[in-house]
Amino acid sequence: MMNSRLFTQLKSRPTVFSHHTSWLPRLDTIFLCRTYTHTTTRTKHSISPLASRQLHNMADDAPDGGGPLPNPGVGPGSADKYPKELEWQTRPPYRVVSRDEFGEVKWKGGCHCGRVTYELNREQPLKAKYCHCRGCQIVHGAPFQWAAIFPKSDISFTNGSDGLAFYASDRKTTKYELPTKVSCAYCRTPIMDEGRNMCLLFPGTIHFGDSEEDHQAWKKAFEISCHIFYGQRSLDIPDGKQKWSGMDENSDLVDDYGKEI
Ligand SMILES: [Zn+2]
Ligand SMILES: [Zn+2]
After folding, report:
1. Ligand nearest to the CA of residue 113, numbered in listed order
2. Could you say which architecture CATH assigns to the domain 32-68+106-243?
């Protein structure tokens, strides 16, 4: 049994099985990295001597969090079961869904300690990227972040909302506020960044088989199409992939060595 003191205190997990209301996620979801856009967009040399101060000022430029979300998990008469601050448990990817509703499982994943597990019903993400922003370097303790975009309804936590911890980096709060970073509350493995409509899942947590064939299939499924915030990179990656100095589609395109093209 998990040590309940170490986990988010959630007395009950949602078990809502309501008819799925389809909704189309928008691709222009504001993700966590957008909070860094102001420091790098349209700058040729985005590693500024003010980087440290800007990082600390990020919260001042935070987008509004917690905007209205579609709420497919709550059926008529059930909304009052959940206090407002726990309504997120009734929405994808946290609400518990039936096998029939979720469909065929294409991938399974989980944290290092095994307490948090999830499933995906989509073979390939909409897009995968490496993010080199300072925030990702710090929060992940890594040279860059590897993230794969999935609509929220493609993901289902096998244990619902149990055992998760949140960190909304733009507001520096561990309260559940979007956008937020989602990790295992016990081993602290980063699982995903949750935006308003999409999740940026970290493919390193996805399980694949023991064979080389399985390994290659995993690599191929989550291969990146571009690098973002390459202006803040900790190393050059000469892979020939598209590179943006800041946010994709909203900054300068640069070559493998950061030179504007
Ligand atoms: Zn864990
Ligand atoms: Zn980032």
Report:
1. 1
2. Beta Complex (2.170)
Nearest bound ligand to the CA of residue 188: 1
For 75-96, what is each residue's pLDDT tens digit?
Answer: 444 555 678 888 999 999 999 9
Q: Do 140 and 146 meet the contact criterion of CB atoms below 8 Å apart? A: no
The whole-number average pLDDT for the span 94-114 is 95
Domain boundaries, the chain: 32-68+106-243
Q: Which residues surround ligand 1, an ion (CB under 5 A)?
A: 111, 113, 115, 184, 186-187
> Is residue 114 over pLDDT 60?
yes
Looking at residue 60, what is its pLDDT?
32
What residues flank ion ligand 2 with Cβ within 5 A?
33, 131, 133, 136
Q: How far apart are CA 32 and CA 216, in angstroms?
A: 29
**What are the b/e assignments for 127-151, b being 16+ CB within 10 Å?**
bbbbbbbbbbbebbeeebbbbbbbb
Phi/psi-derived region of residue 204, left when phi > 0, alpha when psi is between -120 and 50, beta in every other case: alpha
Separation of alpha carbons 174 and 166, rounded Å: 5
CA distance 41 to 59: 17
Ligand located closest to 200 CA: 2
| Helix (H) or strand (E) segment spanning residue 212 | helix 212-221
Does residue 72 have a cis bond before it (omega within 30 degrees)? no
**The tokens 């493609």 sit on which residue?**
154
Confidence at residue 36, expressed as pLDDT on a 0 to 100 scale: 40
Beta bridge mates, 190: 183
Collapse the DSSP code of 134 into the 3-class scheme (helix H, G, I; strand E, B; otherwise coil) and give the result: helix
